Amino acid sequence: MPHFSSSDIVFITLWVLVLFSVATWTLIVVKGWMQWRLSRENREFSLAFWSAKGLREAEQVSTSAAGPLARLAHAGFTALRDMQKGGEQSLYHSGDQQDILERCLRSQVQKEHNRLDSGLMVLASIGSTAPFVGLFGTVWGIMHALQDISKSGSAGLDVVAAPIGEALIATALGIATAIPAVLAYNYGLRRTRLYVAEMEDFATDFLHLAMKSGFRVE
């Protein structure tokens, strides 16, 4: 078994916090870029979809476009096509046409929701644990300082300065890691709720269009 000194424990704690910080900022950049891209794709798709002359043209738009709303529309059109062809006989395809379409749209919204949620749990975990990891390093640094005092029999600054300094760094780094993680998680959660609400509104509009057309694309 390797033997770790008190200073080694604090050093390892600091590196754990550094890794937490790198993971946090990586997720912030990745999620920020993804949300910007999704907003642009949804905006472009909505403009093209509602400019279509009919469901047939709108279906072509959903096939060529990208983004959550485009995938939602594509899933809806796929369900309509299956119903026109008779569809597969299964529990999933049981019920009247409105029930089948609602089930399909709801399932796709949930898939997109799960995709948008990816990475948020990591941010939440880092935001909630980083201060305690920093506190662990602080407590260990103070224990190291008390051990040095007991060995030297002196409480001079030259004895306690190094371990107390390590402890303060651990505390500061823990807080500095947690704050952006918590802020990014709250912002990401709010953006996800807005995207889900947008998809649910679109699913309702799509259902009304399908009902108006008799659940037929053409």
Topology:
Elements: H1 6-50, H2 55-64, H3 68-85, H4 97-117, H5 120-152, H6 157-212
Helix pairs in contact: 1-2, 1-5, 1-6, 2-3, 3-4, 3-6, 4-6, 5-6
Q: Largest sheet, if any?
A: none
Order of helical and strand elements: HHHHHH
**Range of strand content:** under 5%
Distance between the ends: 73 Å
User: If you average the pLDDT, what whole number results?
Assistant: 83
- Percent range for helical residues? over 70%
Poorly predicted segments: none
Report the C-alpha radius of gyration, rounded.
27 Å
Which of globular, elongated, flat, extended, rod-shaped describes the shape? rod-shaped
- The tally of domains stands at 1
Which structural class fits the helix and strand makeup? mainly alpha
**Number of E-state strands:** 0
Number of continuous helical runs: 6
